[in-house]
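User: Show me a protein chain along with its predicted structure.
Assistant: Here is one chain, sequence first, then structure tokens.
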Amino acid sequence: MNVAFLNENTLGHTSYLPRFAEELLRRPELGVTPRVLDALPLPPHLRRLGDTSIRGLRKFGLDFHGTRWRVAASRHLREQLDQLRQRERVDALVVNTQSMGLALDGLPQELPVFVALDATFQQLARSPWFAPNAPSRWLQPLTLRGLLRRERALFARTTRFLPWSAPVSESLRRDYGVAAERISVLPPSLTPPPRRAGPVANVRPQLLFLGGDFIRKGGPLLRECHERFFANRCDLHLVTQSEVSAGPGVFVHRGVKAGSEAWQQRWREADVFVFPSRLETFGIVLLEALAFEVPVVASATGAARSILGNGDFGRLLPELTVEALRTALEEVLADPSAAWTRAQRGREDFQRNYALDANTARLAGRLQSAQLA
């Protein structure tokens, strides 16, 4: 069967669908041929709608930039989908995320539509994601009205939901009344690296941070904590695209691509992965830490609590403060045996829930079942 993958290729979404598509191409016996369509870059006729911002109004949400961008990106994907359907048969659609499915009205009802999502709009409305300040929160019922209406129209058309995590599944049931039998959790999935022989034993422990957006991912908090309490005994490695400077015991790595040898080296040499992110919907990098069996200290944002097993697979920060981070790091560094045990349990949970080969087979089975229904 031919399946169109409508891909939101931004931030952490970029690799979600392509990984499944690559695995499906590698395993033709699963019977699914993927066709990946990317939302970005926007074509010229949609660029003004999606990319422009009105100075002075954006901070209140009154330029509707987020809504306009989502509409433009979903229209671009719909145009590509229509062209694909003119060239060949399309048996099903997989859309990541609901933002990319806002322009799917008018499709044949018999065409199965699967929607993957890292958060519902109702979840995002309860976080600072849509409304980062008091005025925008006050105006949010107005600014989100159209977006929520489009989301509900898409959900009414959806054959099966593929939430990334249990909290998203819960929101679909609670906030939207979606029946449990229409929901199948499909988290971001990876091919695991070889297992570690044991904990890393650097003379100076290496703290690792990975985050394209240094500020939003909590980089400044980590850097302050390192400078005040750990600079004399730990090295801090920052893998980021943001403009940050190196310093005593601080090493900055830019242009490091996920999956590259330089990226893998950072994971292999890390004693502790630190991720004090302030705003997150999932946190794919935490899966990478589990896969590489690196002890984790992380904030409880996004799906971190679920990914880290409520602290069984890594240390969750009770609050985002320098003191809380210092305490967690001191505990991990003081008892490497306990940290290694948590990391091993995390790797085992990764194998059960996030392995790409198994989850791709599950996705193929769901697609095949929908075609036969």
